Amino acid sequence: MVTTCLENKLLGGDEEKFTPFLLFSCLVASSGGLLFGYDLGISGGVTSTESFLKQFFPGVYTAMKQDANISNYCKFDSQLLTLFTSSLYFAGLFASLFSSQVTNRLGCRFSMRTGGAFFFAGAIIGAAAINVHMLILSRLLLGFGVGFTNQTVPLYLSEMAPARYRGAIFNVFEMCINGGILLANLINYGTQKIEAGWGWRLSLGLAAIPATVLTAGAFFISDTPTSIFRLGGDLQEASRVLQKIRGTTDITKELDDLVAATARASSAAATQNPLRRIVRRNYRPQLVMALILPIFQQLTGINLVTYYAPTMFRSVGLEESASLLSSLITRLTATACNLVAMAFVDRFGRRKFFFFGGIQMFVSQVVVGVIMAAKLGDHGVMSREYAKLMLLFLSLYVAGFGWSWGPLPWLVSEMFPLEIRSVGQSIVVMAGFLFNAVIAQSLLLMLCHMKWGIFFFFAGWVLLMTVFVFLFLPETTGMPLERIGRVWRGHWYWKKFVEDKEQAEVTQRN
Prior knowledge:
The chain is mainly alpha-helical. It contains 25 helices and no strands. Helix 7 (108-127) runs antiparallel to helix 10. The longest helix has 33 residues, at 418-450. The protein is globular, with a radius of gyration of 23 Å. It is a multi-pass membrane protein. The chain crosses the membrane at residues 21-38, 80-98, 110-130, 169-187, 199-221, 287-309, 321-341, 353-374, 386-406, 427-446, 452-473. Residues 25-477 form the Major facilitator superfamily (MFS) profile domain. It is found in: Membrane. Belongs to the major facilitator superfamily. Sugar transporter (TC 2.A.1.1) family.
């Protein structure tokens, strides 16, 4: 389905061909999203499985099954249980601090293989866990794997993709994340039916499969032409790879742009460390987006649905099997909407998807909050009709996320000039993991204390970030990667920062 959709979109007779080698390379790299997505889906499912809770978190199991005095919103409130989820993101945050250096020195392929190997080891230890300590160790190794892949894969895709189709290619990465979550939901739904109670081991252990796909596949793809230059490769090798991924020998203009960008980056690196450079005034727009967009992505509230949809559906009165089925429905919706975004984001632009998705998410969260406030008490059970209505609007919310704040923040890597691209992507990953970890660790506590108000809390953030996009995010659709800096010079606010750079260069030449 991925191949068909991409070919229909990208093989339409344009001068920029979407070659089989480029398709294969992008699919292998995007499989890093499977790792991230699979873990997102699996962790939420296994933490609602009774046999898993009984073995590792007996206090939560007792509260869920036997304590009638605990509020519906507080049944799963356990800091140890949330640490099972959030420890991955703390590890990913740590890995992102040095993954850019590994990528700069050894290339994207090496970072992908490293990430896959960490993830494979984490999956095996998780499946064999006999105590909480082994579970946490497993999560830490998984976090190292995700930290490397989330830093490397968007960087790789942005440098491999033709400018006019970069949005569609980035959506393959997001679709792999959604596909990983969907696969995890399907596996959780199936393994929950294993009566012997060891199904959660199968759920955790099967994460080794996408890890193997990425690790093995990275041996059969090429580094990007930009990365070849960065690693000291020659012009002939970069030219050969560029011709292979573009499907044409007419690559002179793009190659010249790459040579010029690499020369500027090398000169900049010789005079100043990239981390110090990115905080300079003329890189202010990129630094702000590197911090704000991944933070906003976490503040949409998607983690409430992704991590804890099964536990949340159990809280409103659904049984174990029905709660897992409900989370599966929301994920099918997200995957379908991600396909829509992949097909049209390069035609209509990033900003429009941000606007319409934001409005859809805001309305859906408000409606879900109203339903839970009116129809779910602290100790009651929501009627099946209202539970279905809540599921409908949660699906609409996930749909809005699927074509806006899900895939589009990953495109922030296209905004970085080469001299700060790797460190900029590390900042994106670091900011995302930091808030991912904070939200994951505090979400069940927030749900317990804020109750239905948590949906209004996240709806408020969605409204704020939609206004931010309207005011401060320029349109980057179709802009060549090496020339994308001009969008900042034409923006009403950011031009006062980047114009200083232009004036300084003119003064220096004179």
